[in-house]
Amino acid sequence: MAYAHRKALGFGALGMTAAFVTGVVAVAGVVLYGPLSQDAKLDKAVRHVAVVWHTEGDGAADEQLRFEVARVSRHKTLTEEDCLRASDEQGVRLVRCEWETRVAVPLSDLVVPLSFVSEVQISVDGELR
Q: What is the C-alpha to C-alpha distance for residues 127 and 107, in angstroms, rounded to an integer?
């Protein structure tokens, strides 16, 4: 009877493993949320800069890029120097931003470097690729 009582109150090995895995996933989600969120925002920002460049020209695209970098960047991890605007002979325009960050793993001395790239091309007719 004592055994049944202990088993009913305890998690057991499977429950402890599930709790541990859930905890690890939750911590990873919290640690990675910032960089992944910033990257998703930058993907949208790069597309917006390309459209502004296509519709309003160089000056407006430069201004929009400065605005987007300031809006998206957390802790100054991204600067305007991390972004490139270029066009080829056919008039295809490229907007590309690359940035890196380092994420500390909680409860350890491990620091993981992460790299991100956001890129879009816009054709002469305004099609985004």
A: 47
- pLDDT (tens digit, 9 = 90+) per residue, 7-19? 555 567 777 676 5
pTM: 0.76
Distance (Å, rounded) from C-alpha 51 to C-alpha 93? 10
In a domain, 7, yes or no: yes
Return the sign of the alpha-carbon dihedral for residues 95, 123, 56, 36. negative
d(CA 87, CA 96): 11
Q: Is 127 inside a domain boundary? A: no
Look at the chain and report how many structural domains it folds into.
1
Pick 21 or 61 by higher pLDDT.
61
